[in-house]
Amino acid sequence: MSLQEHELRNARSKKMLLWFAMISMFMTFAGLTSAYVVSASRPDWLNTFKLPDAFIISTVVIVISSFTFHFAKTFVKKGDNKTAGMLLLATLALGVAFVFCQFNGFQEIIESGYFFTGSESTVTTSFVYIVTIVHLVHLFAGLIVLLVVIYNHFKQKYNPSQTLGIELGAMFWHFLDILWIYLFLFLYFY
Questions:
Q1: CATH of domain 3-189
Q2: Which pTM does this prediction carry?
Q3: What letter does residue 52 receive in the DSSP assignment?
Q4: Is residue 87 within 8 Å of residue 71, measured between CB atoms?
């Protein structure tokens, strides 16, 4: 087996493992949203609860971050490392802004008188907290992946012929983006 063939198989294996991981993560959220649907029939369910505006802003922010990551990967493939580096740093800033918006959303929920636990909590708001916090945990993992990609980029480990690391990072980041859009739309419309 040639070196090139070995690298191709290695890349396919890593991408397949990432797909399995992402599918299992999605199944976790499918279970949480299924539990949400079942719980919505409870008599103590809040039908008037509205998602905070900060969640709308965070959705826009994470979608933009997916574009910046995509274009960073594109510029690496073109050999334009300077532009790719700026786009990766922009993606990191947008990821941090997403987390900031999420915490602002939690603050809006609390200011509306809804809490995660205690006498002021409801089943509805507890589900919203759980779903968004579990997503934030995955996003923190995404930020760590992004930091590794940025570190490797500035160590010049990526070039037009070696893009596996940035491709895997982008796949995971896009997955987190799609997952949040799914969760946001689910919570907003259900």
A1: 1.20.120.80
A2: 0.90
A3: -
A4: yes
Q: Token pair for residue 37?
A: 């649907």
Token readout for 173 is 């980041």
Q: Which residue has the tokens 């369910």?
A: 45
Radius of gyration of the chain (CA): 19
- Residue-wise pLDDT tens digits, 118-155: 777 888 888 888 888 898 899 999 999 999 999 999 99
Are 163 and 38 in contact by the 8 Å Cβ rule? The answer is no
- With beta carbons less than 8 A apart as the criterion, state whether 105 and 164 touch: no
Ramachandran assignment for 156, one of left (phi > 0), alpha (psi -120 to 50 degrees), beta (any other): left
Output the CA angle 146-150-155, nearest 5 degrees: 145
Helices (H) and strands (E) in the chain, counts: 5, 0
Q: Are 40 and 190 in contact (CB under 8 A)?
A: yes
At 64, phi and psi to the nearest 5? -60, -40
Dist CA 162 CA 160 (whole Å) = 6
Quick one: three-class SS letters along 83-104? HHHHHHHHHHHHHHHHHHHHHH
